[in-house]
């Protein structure tokens, strides 16, 4: 039974993810048609706004790899929460494209703080307080963020203009900040001693590099579906106008999946769980290739939501346990690889779709990358050596 303090800390962390990822990042997805209709934005501007947001996220991930001071991490984490809300609200106070670019970039920085610094700080707190060193509950905030933005978009898109909608998203984020800030523990008291000599550091460095390659493959599998799932759904007569519902289904699937993957990991081990998550992610892609019926697309969204969130949760939790003295740094290295995939893969698949008039070959290419990812994941397991897997605390 978890203590009241542990429940509050976990709740604060989850809410922070909802704010920094759900509000600051995912609110843009349902806002795209609203802004295009109201302002006549070109697809290039729409794409660039997404790209600069990813660029901000990647920049944040890269900066975090250079930070080891715990006090600075806590301050930047708190600043990231504020930035996520402010940058969202300000999107509704201007129609200047260059200011939008700046705001979306800053929003990406806030997302990296909430996700990476938040995950690292929580991992340190869990280890310090002899709790299970799992991040499934933490990453359920991603699924909740998807659900929140999908539902909120349907509620406000009729009565409010595009600029008012941005402000509403920001105000919802501000309201959520209150419990997130109030229940936040003193992370400064969670510093852990550094471990491992040079030989151990070299071995772990090889391990993390191979794991980065595997995570890059997972990033391709994640972003191609995230980018084109709604477009595929909208192209189906029976699902036209219901793309938001597909996105909602993916979010509903992702929300409890993190916790279920933690349970599976305890029972069967983290490597078996990762192999299964990668395989399921590949299956969700295959389903979009072989059958675009409503049932198949909906089921693909369910499998996709459950699998991608499991990969993210288990990968980052794994490196957090391997590098407990500074978990945010390896988490950021993995995320940087994941982010590179998010910037490259949609461009490649989008180009193939323009040339061929459909997404089939792009999806086959994505499926191939995920298959390679399973192989690289196995290499990472071998690089880890014959040592036993780190025990889950608690």
Automatic annotation (TrEMBL):
GO terms for molecular function: transmembrane transporter activity. Pfam families: MFS_4. It comes from the Bacteria. InterPro entries: MFS_4 (IPR010645), MFS_dom (IPR020846), MFS_trans_sf (IPR036259). Keywords: Membrane, Transmembrane, Transmembrane helix. Gene3D superfamilies: MFS general substrate transporter like domains (1.20.1250.20). GO terms for cellular component: plasma membrane. Residues 6-385 form the Major facilitator superfamily (MFS) profile domain. The keyword Acyltransferase does not apply. The chain crosses the membrane at residues 7-28, 40-64, 76-93, 99-123, 135-154, 166-184, 205-232, 244-261, 273-290, 302-323, 335-353, 359-380. PANTHER family: PTHR23537, SUGAR TRANSPORTER (PTHR23537:SF1). This is Predicted arabinose efflux permease, MFS family.
